[in-house]
Amino acid sequence: PVLYSYFRSSCSWRVRIALALKGISYDLVPVNLVKDGGQQFSAEFKTVNPMQQVPALKIDGITLSQSLAIIHYLEDTRPNPRLLPQDPKKRAQIRMIADHIASGIQPLQNLVVLKKMGEKKTEWAQNCITSGFQALEQILQHTAGRYCVGDEVSMADLCLVPQVFNAERFKVNMDPYPTITRINKALLELEAFRVSHPSRQPDTPAELRA
């Protein structure tokens, strides 16, 4: 497998966690979203992903983009350890939380949007994350055990940790979100979340390395 990734991309981080959890080794091709006006806009990368976004994963003779689609494929083809349980209610809750983050929070504060916001980008990102986390905290109070849904790591957790990292980067006050904070802390103790962390990637700038 070949993963096209950017160290600080939360979507890429989700996939890196899934690959680590499932013990899938891969070659990493860094795509710098800032350098040279954004390497994702190169003609070469456009043939990999016409949406000109990371991540993209070449695996089993196909190329996939969109982090949740990639994670679903890994789950279908390499089901151990499971990231979606058999129980349909828990599966639905996990997908709901994953979509809440991947559709309802992250796209509103990603690089493309923030560029358009200019000087107001930090305030905009804080507002998007805060409104999303207010809802997410309520949801997790009903679904959480040790992790987002019960006591097993799931696809929801793969979305949560990168989004909390973004929140901290934009200096969002996390005090109102004790459930989110507790789950994030527990997940960051797991090896798969540590090795995939933005501070430990081949393309991480020296000053941001762990």
From TrEMBL:
Domain named GST C-terminal: residues: 87-206
PROSITE patterns: GST_CTER, GST_NTER
Compartments (UniProt record): Cytoplasm
Coiled coil: none
UniProt-listed GO biological process terms: glutathione metabolic process; L-phenylalanine catabolic process; L-tyrosine catabolic process
Catalytic activity: RX + glutathione = an S-substituted glutathione + a halide anion + H(+); 4-maleylacetoacetate = 4-fumarylacetoacetate
Main location: cytoplasm
Cofactor(s) demanded: glutathione
Keyword Transferase included in the entry's annotation: yes
The entry's keywords: Cytoplasm, Isomerase, Phenylalanine catabolism, Transferase, Tyrosine catabolism
Residues covered by the GST N-terminal domain: 1-82
Signal peptide coordinates: none
GO MF annotation: an example: maleylacetoacetate isomerase activity
Name recorded for this polypeptide: Maleylacetoacetate isomerase
Organism the protein comes from: Apaloderma vittatum
